[in-house]
Design a protein that fits this description.
Elements lengths: L1 E6 L7 H14 L4 E5 L3 H5 L3 E4 L35 H12 L3 E6 L1 H12 L4 E5 L15 H22 L2 E6 L6 H9 L4 E3 L7 H13 L5 E6 L10 H12 L4 E5 L11 H20 L4 E6 L2 E6 H4 L11 H8 L10
The structure holds 6-O-phosphono-beta-D-fructofuranose (F6P).
6-O-phosphono-beta-D-fructofuranose binds next to loops.
Length: 341
C-alpha cells in the first residue's frame, strides 16, 4: 500500500501531530509506504515529494507549522493568466498514478476538503482530515488547531486586562476566524471579554456604546471588546479598527486596538489538539486500510467517525443563534452588540 499525505491551506498547531498519527499507523500497523507531498496541492502538480519513514516522523509531535509545507493552491480554480492555463487536476492524477498511490490524505480546512472531494470525483482515492483554527468545517464538531488558538487568544486577552485596568481604557482585540465566530466566542468567554462581536450576530454600535457607558456608571473602570475579523464593517476597514474608531467617537473612554494576527496560528499545539490530531490520523489510516475512501474524518459526541467528503463540500459550520454559550454568556452580562433576548 502506498499513501501520499499533504497539508494545505493556512497552517495551524497540530498538523505535524496529524502527519505523525496517520503516517506512523500506516507504517507500523499496515506496513505501507508513506510519501509526504510538499506545499499542499502544489507538490502534486510539481511532483515534489519525499518518502516518510519512522525516523522522519519522530520528534515532530510538539512542533508547530508543518514539516511538509503548505500553500493555498486550488487546482480546480481557473487561473486568470493564459500562460498558466494547464489542466492541473489532470497533472495531479498523472503524478498520483505514476507514484502508484493507493490513497491521498488531504489535511486542511474547508477549501482543502472541497478540493479533496473534487479529486475523489475525479477518480482518486482520497481521505480528508479537518484542521483549522477557525473550527468552521462542516460535519465535525471540532477541528484540530482550534483549541490551541483559543489558548493563545485567551492568554492575549488576559494580558490586555492588566493594561486596561491600569490605564482605565477600553481595549479592542481582533481575532481571526474567517467568516465564523467560534474562536472569538470561545476565547472571548474564556478571557472574560465584556463585549464579544462575531460575524453570525449583526451588531448595533449604539448598543455597544450604551453598554460601555453603563459599565463606567457602575464604576467598572475598564472594558475589553473581543472582535472577530469577519464581522461586517464599513469603508473596507478591518474589524478591530472599525469598532475602535466608531465606538471611540461615541464614548468618553480611551480606546486602544490590538490585532493578534498570525500569533494565533503559530507554535506548539495544545495537548487537546495533539490528542485530536493523533486520533484523526490513526482513524484515517484505518479507513485507508479498509479501502473506505472519499470520506472526511470527523468527531461527533467525542467519537471519531467519518462522513462522505461530498457532504462537507461547499458548506460552512457557523455559530448557531441558539448556541448554549451565547445564552450562558448573556446570563452573566456579556454584550454581543445586539438584543439577544
Ligand atoms: O483559516 C485560517 C486563517 O488563519 C483565518 O482565520 C484567516 O482569515 C486566514 O486563515 C488568513 O489567511 P492567510 O494565511 O492566507 O493570510
Amino acid at each position: 500500500m502506498k499513501v501520499g499525505i499533504l497539508t494545505a491551506g493556512g497552517d495551524c498547531p497540530g498538523l505535524n501531530a496529524a502527519i505523525r498519527g496517520v503516517g506512523k499507523t500506516l507504517l507500523l500497523k499496515y506496513n505501507a509506504k508513506v510519501y509526504g507531498i510538499s506545499s499542499g496541492f502544489l507538490g502534486l502538480i510539481e511532483n515534489d515529494y519525499v518518502e516518510l519513514t519512522e525516523a522522519s516522523l519522530s520528534g515532530i509531535l510538539t512542533i508547530g507549522g508543518t514539516i511538509l509545507g503548505t500553500s493555498r493552491e486550488k487546482p480546480f480554480k481557473k487561473s486568470k493568466h493564459f500562460l498558466e492555463e494547464i489542466d492541473k487536476p489532470a497533472v495531479i492524477k498523472e503524478n498520483y498514478d505514476n507514484l502508484g498511490l493507493d490513497c491521498l490524505v488531504c489535511i486542511g480546512g474547508n477549501g482543502t476538503q472541497r478540493t479533496a472531494s473534487k479529486l475523489s470525483e475525479y477518480g482518486m482515492n482520497v481521505i480528508g482530515m479537518p484542521k483549522t483554527i477557525d473550527n468552521d468545517v462542516f460535519g465535525t464538531e471540532l477541528t484540530f488547531g482550534f483549541h490551541s488558538a483559543v489558548g493563545i487568544a485567551t492568554e492575549a486577552i488576559d494580558r490586555l486586562h492588566t493594561t486596561a485596568n491600569a490605564h482605565k481604557r477600553v481595549m479592542v482585540i481582533e481575532l481571526m476566524g474567517h467568516n465564523a465566530g467560534w474562536l472569538t466566542l470561545y476565547a472571548g468567554i474564556a478571557g472574560g471579554g465584556d463585549v464579544i462581536l462575531i460575524p453570525e450576530i449583526p451588531y448595533d454600535l449604539n448598543i455597544i456604546a450604551d453598554y460601555l457607558r453603563d459599565r463606567t456608571a457602575k464604576k467598572k473602570s475598564s472594558s475589553i471588546i473581543v472582535v472577530a475579523e469577519g464581522i461586517e464593517t464599513k469603508k473596507g476597514m478591518s474589524a478591530g479598527h472599525y469598532i475602535a474608531t466608531q465606538v471611540g467617537e461615541m464614548v468618553e473612554e480611551q480606546m486602544r486596538e490590538t490585532v493578534l494576527g498570525y500569533i494565533q496560528r503559530g507554535g506548539t499545539p495544545a495537548p487537546f489538539d495533539r490528542i485530536l490530531a493523533t486520533r484523526f490520523g490513526a482513524y484515517a489510516a484505518h479507513l485507508i486500510a479498509e479501502g473506505n475512501f472519499g470520506r472526511m474524518v470527523a468527531i461527533q459526541n467525542d467519537h471519531v467517525t467519518s462522513i462522505p467528503l461530498s457532504e462537507t463540500e461547499g458548506k460552512l459550520k457557523l455559530v448557531p443563534s441558539d448556541h448554549a454559550l451565547l445564552t450562558r454568556a448573556t446570563d452573566i452580562g456579556t454584550c454581543f452588540g445586539a438584543n439577544l433576548g
